[in-house]
Design goal:
The chain is α+β, with helices and mostly antiparallel strands. It is 45% helix and 21% strand. Among the domains are: 21-100 and 204-312, D-Maltodextrin-Binding Protein, domain 2 (3-Layer(aba) Sandwich), CATH 3.40.190.10; 105-198, D-Maltodextrin-Binding Protein, domain 2, CATH 3.40.190.10; 620-724, 2-Layer Sandwich (Beta-Lactamase); 830-985, Histidine kinase-like ATPase, C-terminal domain (Heat Shock Protein 90), CATH 3.30.565.10.
Length: 985
């Protein structure tokens, strides 16, 4: 027996838990600090605490990390922004966390090469991996400087920096945290070309998994993500310790401590840009990255960013469940039709708390629900038995109901309470009133529970809550037992007086959804959805239906409170005597502590200053203080970050003002001097944005704020900040370039339409000229006139003049057509005061013949007489875009009586233009997207997806108006709304 006991103890002590999950992470490169967070999550036991046994797989030459994960050879991977493009092409992944908020990818060139700027890249040899150019930030940097991918000669990456040093290549794709350190150690001067300098800060080292793995292992993915981010926070907070671990276990590249420290500091800056939370991913940044790929022509697919980012993706459904939701038209449900606030049927509508919960399930699952009307709970249960209902939204688990349904996890738990007359005492112990009679509704599910838990309880079953209250009112029953909200709702909404909720039972009711037991997928979908609905959302639904006031036993609590006060007073007297004796000893102790505090004050001030410097470094925010006494003597102090922003040596303490002005852009020197002079002259808050010109030619944009305070002795002290906003400014400039590019692209697309219109309108005059020329040629060839006869010669000259005059008229007509279209395409930056009706007529004239040739009838109903300030050609372009879209819709349909109606009207403050067609309308699934850039319903080769996006920009930004579309009975209706700003008199 003793040996058996020892064996059992040994098995308990040394056995491993059998629920540990083995997973693998494919790294994007060889071991180095770039993956320190994963090392520390493993070494510090964060993965083990999450129930995970993680294998860290080092990169192998020629490997595609994306394919390793998608094809299942690894569960997780570390990827780059290029995975956005792969995902849109069908290889579905989910981004879990972006470790670096800006890409470390750079291009290096030697300083003694003839490459001084990005424009010098043309026809140069670049050593790169496929991913380096596919990376959005590198590709965008090249594109922003008009460098195409075909303008470079590519060399397969050898990962040997000597190829750059020996000038085998001109440019070398590198990491900001690695190769620059090597060049510095070898004393080789170099130039860095970073996408961040052009405002392209895109995510890098993105932790991801396949969508299939996530849907089947949601809990594992969640635990792995949390443990990994915890590891990264630890690694960046304990850099030296992390480097020790790498040197001992993961140093396959034989890096030195100094190299790893250099790498760590560089990467930490990239991880916490703008003080972001480690791993943060935003939908806006993902969409912006994808827009760059689209502009570069690297993809044409539409991206749903929500399905790509972990925090917004529905992670708890399997592929089979997603397919079920997609195919299921409606889930039929029955309910208790007269049980408010829980559920009721009112004029064919489902209302109550159950309705709110069902709406949340619909919102989060995508299922649609259809009410099967009944008049009683019994009828609902019978229909459920016959499978005429798929679910019941509110039900408690009882033995009898478990035989009919599969019951989900409960989403709300509510206590059972006793309602009595007001004069009854509060019930502290249910056992004390078990000799009384209690009313309870016969249809409730908890009767069995009450009888089982309280065998001696006397229950009188009633048909309704009203009958239960009547029983208490007549004195036949001591109290009425029901769930809390049901009783409270009845009292509150029927203005019941003389009753109170006087006691609470130990039992409670757990509310669930009941699902037919032969539909496993439906049960799984609804159960998962309910588990993911927050308690706060459930409580908000409940709060909208009822607020409950509890009656408290004031008599008992009043007595208790008095006793507590007396007891506390006695304690106070005893403590006061003790306190007086202890006071001297305490003062002595405090004196000793004060001495110790004084000793450590300097250290604490140092630490606080260090924290402030770190915060300034992260925010790229420097500070300065300038003091000037009565004699005009000034003293200027800068923070370390101010030196870093201005790129001035920190050791320079004297003459920093003069050195600073050597850094100010020559064109901005005067206004900066005026800013500082103004700062010292008054105590107002001052602001300036100006440029700094660095020694290597780079331009920085900085924001400066200042405010001056005056002391009693006449000393003036100015406090100021300086912040590097280069990335923000360049980003705005890039976005402006992007919008201009989009509008230009749309104009080029519409130019083709215009050429078609010109060709159509030239057809008739050219035919007439040809016919006239033929008439003249025929008359000459047939010798219709005898030119030797004076009279016939005169007739011939009249005949010839008449025909040539006609040709001249036709040529003038051709010229007029060209002039009209030329005027439309003239760039007009200035706006003018015009009537909307005249603009509509001009647009109709430009496109009228084309629409008529397509057998499309155009009706004008113009009722606007006011003139407003508009950009004429841009507004015409908007109208032509809409008319062309309508024309193409008619061409793709079988509408025989194609019609377009253009109307104008106005109110006191606004002018409206509507363009309505009978072409069948816009699909409701895409109607909210048609103004998005690159969204097109046309075939890829026929549509750019820019026309309506450009129209929206013209209306909203050029005219401060609005454009929208709605479906009518027969087609689509575009509505343009402009503010009525008339010309000043």
């Amino acid at each position: 027996m003793r040996y058996i006991l020892l064996l059992l103890i040994s098995s308990l002590l040394f056995s491993q838990p059998n629920d540990v999950q083995k997973v693998s992470l494919q790294l994007a490169w060889l071991h180095q600090f770039q993956f320190a967070g994963y090392y520390m999550a493993k070494e510090k036991g964060f993965y083990e605490e999450a129930g995970l046994d993680v294998e860290l797989k080092e990169y192998r030459s020629g490997m595609n990390v994306f394919d390793e994960v998608v094809e299942g050879r690894a569960n997780f991977g570390v990827g780059r922004s290029s995975m956005i493009r792969y995902d849109s092409s069908g290889k579905k992944v989910v981004m879990l966390a972006a470790i670096f908020q800006s890409s470390p990818n750079i291009l290096l060139a030697l300083e003694d090469s003839n490459i001084k700027r990005v424009e010098d890249f043309k026809n140069k040899f670049i050593m790169k991996t496929k991913e380096a150019i596919d990376n959005a930030s590198i590709a965008a940097m090249l594109k922003s400087h008009d460098i195409g991918l075909d303008d470079l000669h590519y060399v397969e990456h050898s990962f040997n920096l000597n190829d750059l040093i020996d000038k085998n290549v001109d440019l070398y794709a590198a990491y900001i945290s690695n190769e620059p350190y090597t060049l510095q150690k070898r004393g080789i001067k170099y130039r860095v070309f970073s996408p961040a300098d052009d405002g392209f800060n895109f995510y890098s080292d993105i932790l991801f998994t396949s969508r299939k793995y996530l849907e089947n292992h949601h809990e594992i993915v969640k635990n792995f993500r949390e443990a990994s981010l915890k590891g990264w926070e630890y690694a960046f907070s304990h850099i030296e310790e992390s480097i020790d671990v790498i040197l001992q276990k993961y140093n396959t590249q034989n890096k030195t401590r100094e190299a790893l420290l250099y790498e760590a500091k560089k990467l930490k800056k990239l991880a916490y840009i703008d003080n972001t939370k480690i791993g943060e991913i935003t939908l806006n940044q993902i969409q912006r990255t994808y827009d760059v790929y689209k502009i570069l022509g690297l993809t044409q697919e539409t991206l749903n960013a929500k399905n790509l980012v972990y925090d917004s993706y529905k992670t708890y459904f399997t592929e089979d469940e997603h397919e079920y939701i997609k195919k299921k038209k409606a889930v039929r449900f029955c309910t208790q039709p007269n049980a408010l606030p829980y559920s009721a049927i009112d004029n064919g509508r489902f209302i109550g708390i159950g309705f709110g919960v069902l709406n949340m399930v619909k919102r989060d699952s995508g299922l649609n629900f259809e009410l099967v009307e009944t008049k009683t709970l019994h009828e609902s249960l019978e229909k459920a038995k016959k499978r005429e209902c798929d679910i019941m939204p509110m039900m408690e688990a009882t033995d009898s109901r478990k035989k009919l349904f599969k019951l989900t996890s409960y989403y709300y738990e509510e206590p059972l309470v006793i309602t009595t007359k007001k004069e009854e005492n509060y019930i502290l112990n249910i056992e004390s009133v078990l000799d009384k009679t209690f009313a309870v509704k016969s249809s409730t599910s908890f009767i069995e529970k009450l009888k089982k838990h309280y065998p001696k309880i006397n229950l009188k079953e009633v048909e309704s809550i009203q009958e239960g209250f009547d029983c208490v009112e007549r004195g036949e029953c001591f109290g009425y037992i029901d769930v809390l909200m049901s009783s409270a709702y009845y009292i509150q909404h029927h203005n019941i007086v003389g009753f109170k909720i006087a006691g609470q039972l130990d039992e409670s009711v757990k509310v669930r959804m009941a699902i037919r037991d032969d539909d496993e997928l439906l049960f799984s979908i609804i159960d998962k959805t309910i588990k993911n609905i927050s308690k706060k959302d459930i409580q908000n639904i409940i709060n909208s239906w009822i607020s409950v006031n509890y009656t408290k036993p004031l008599d008992i609590w009043y007595f208790k409170e008095i006793m507590i006060i007396v007891f506390l007073f006695i304690l106070f007297l005893l403590y006061r005597e003790y306190f007086l004796k202890k006071k001297n000893r305490e003062l002595e102790r405090l004196q000793k502590e004060l001495i110790e505090l004084n000793k450590t004050l300097e250290q604490k001030v140092y630490e606080a200053t260090k924290d402030l410097q770190k915060a300034q470094e992260i925010a790229k925010l420097g500070s300065w203080v300038c003091q000037e006494n009565r004699e005009g003597k000034r003293k200027l102090r800068w923070s370390k970050e101010t030196y870093d922003i201005c790129e001035i040596e920190y050791s320079l303490q004297e003459g920093i003002n003069a050195r600073f002005f050597t850094k100010v852009h020559p064109e901005d020197v005067e206004k900066v001097k005026e800013f500082y002079a103004k700062s010292l002259r008054n105590s107002h808050k001052n602001f300036i944005r100006h440029r700094l010109l660095m020694d290597d030619g780079r331009v920085k944009y900085v924001d400066e704020h200042s405010e001056t305070f005056y002391d009693e002795d006449g000393t003036r002290t100015s406090y100021g900040t300086i912040q590097d906003v280069t990335q923000e400014v360049l980003l705005k400039q890039e976005m402006m370039k992007k919008d201009a590019f989009i509008i230009h692209q749309s104009r080029l697309a519409q130019m083709g339409e215009m050429m078609s219109m010109i060709a159509h309108q030239w057809k008739q005059p050219l035919s007439a000229i040809g016919a006239t020329q033929m008439t003249i040629s025929t008359a000459i060839e047939l010798e219709k006139y005898d030119l030797s006869d004076e009279k016939q010669r005169k007739d011939f000259l009249n005949f010839l003049k008449t025909r040539l005059d006609k040709i001249a008229l036709y040529v003038q007509s051709l010229s007029d057509i060209i002039r009209d279209f030329r005027d439309f395409y003239k760039p007009k930056k200035e706006s003018a005061y015009l009537s909307i009706d005249s603009i509509i007529k001009k647009a109709n004239e430009l496109l009228g013949d084309t629409l008529e040739a397509s057998k499309i009838e155009v009706e004008l109903d113009l009722n606007s007489s006011s003139t407003i300030k508009v950009h004429e050609n841009e507004l015409i372009q908007v109208i032509l875009n809409i008319l062309n879209n309508a024309k193409e819709q008619f061409q793709n349909s079988t509408i025989l009586d194609a019609k377009i109606k253009i109307s104008s009207y106005e109110s006191d403050r606004e002018i409206f233009v509507t363009i309505e067609d009978n072409g069948g309308g816009v699909d409701e699934e895409i109607i909210d997207k048609i103004f998005d850039p690159y969204f097109s319903t046309k075939l890829e080769k026929h549509g750019t997806g820019l026309g309506l996006y450009m129209s929206k920009i013209i209306i909203s930004e050029y005219h401060s108006g609005d454009i929208s579309v709605v479906n009518t009975k027969n087609g689509a209706k575009f509505i343009i709304k402009l503010k009525k700003v008339t010309k000043d008199i």
